[in-house]
Amino acid sequence: MDFEWFESKYPGWYAEYGAWWEAYNRLKHPGANKPIAFEEVGYQYPHRCWTCMVPCLVRQDMVVDKVDGQWRTYCSETCAWTDTTAFRPEYEGRATPSMGRLTGKREWETCYHGQDLADIVKDLGYVRDDGKTLVPQPHLDLDDPKKPWTLDDIRGNTFISPNVSLNEMSDEEREAHVADYRSRSNITPSMLRPVPPGAETLPPTAREGTAGARRRRGHHQVRRDPAEPPPGRLVFVGDKHRIRFEPVGIEIEADEDETVLDATFRQGVSLMHGCKEGQCSSCKSFPLDGDQQMERYSTFAPADYESEEGYVLLCRTHAYGDLSVELINYDEEMLLSGIPPRQARATVAAVQSLSHDITRLVLDVHPADELPYRTGQYVDIEVPGTDQWRSFSMAGLPAEGPGGKLEFIIKRYPGGRLSGMLNGALRPGDPLTVKARTAPA
Ligand code: FES
């Protein structure tokens, strides 16, 4: 409802900000994830204006200058002029001894650089009378005592001041960082990472179900098969059904616990898709017959009138009986050129820092395992010690046949599940599990 209101008042709002608020809702559960600013959601914490103290959100306007031996950021030319020209000991040839100066640790971020987020929040007094529950909460559901976030839920996240980081960079790194900052939006929806099957990905404010749905789905069971090496393989335990795609006549099998789109990946059928999270409509199709239901999906994909007509998003759809589906967007040649996701064992061969936030990661694929390459392929890497995966595009072609190397250029994010481990936690020789996936070209 909120999303619809914003979109109707401010057309285009959802394309710009929807992904952020979808992620905000998904990440609201205490203990299940870090605060959103420490998760990989395509958000880059903004620099702050040295003069007016407001974040430099109009990124292309940000000015960077060195003043009193310190690199500083400004939201605009006017604020830059104030500090670099007006607030100097001399102005237009006159001494200005009474003029103020903007000095010291002006940003609160710099005062708390390198400290634990929980200690910062406590120090700032943003804790309720019980001494542990946070005053700000990422949701309004405060009746259940298990839902409010406490200091324990945010402990373990180190806060980094953008200004301190900027001053620690080499000239080349700073130049590249500033160019990147100016070129980006505050939120980059395309950088939102796929979440594991079975995880709730969209908020309660999004719609659930389709016109044709006959039952609600409470939860999805996805679990590991302990007998199946190597680790990381997902095993589905629901009933299985036949899915037939028209007009091409291709049939696959889908488990109730996986989405129809995931079932196609598993069986090497390349359907059109994009976000895999019910937001982009690329996988929109029309069910002709059978029992199916959608998980939660974005309010704007598909549009209301399409939902009413019965269109579904295959990345959100579970089959609860044999299904016949008419494909809307497809390329007949591509359909059967997909490769079922192949899993392989790998070892970290190199972790090389290329700049303050870019790392080159090289993996050696186990000599007995093979990841056949197709155009459009990307790789899921299992985050060590978790059952989570992160997707990365390869920086070069992998070798044909078993073994070989995989190379990635990865941007590190504070708190990133995998990218956050590239600061020393992941070392040469560490074992990893990888999975090759193919998106339609
Ligand atoms: S792939 Fe984007 S909505 Fe299904």
TrEMBL record:
A Pfam family recorded for this sequence: Fer2
Domain 2Fe-2S ferredoxin-type: start-end pairs: 241-331
Region spans: Disordered: 187-233
InterPro entries, per the entry: 2Fe-2S_ferredoxin-like_sf, 2Fe-2S_ferredoxin-type, 2Fe2S_fd_BS, Beta-grasp_dom_sf, Cbr1-like_FAD-bd_dom, FAD-bd_FR_type, Ferritin-like_SF, Riboflavin_synthase-like_b-brl
Entry keyword Chloroplast: no
Keyword field: 2Fe-2S, FAD, Flavoprotein, Iron, Iron-sulfur, Metal-binding
Bilayer-spanning residue ranges: none
PANTHER family in the record: NA(+)-TRANSLOCATING NADH-QUINONE REDUCTASE SUBUNIT, NAD(P)H-FLAVIN REDUCTASE
Protein name: Uncharacterized protein
Organism: Streptomyces thermocarboxydovorans
Native organism taxonomy: Bacteria, Bacillati, Actinomycetota, Actinomycetes, Kitasatosporales
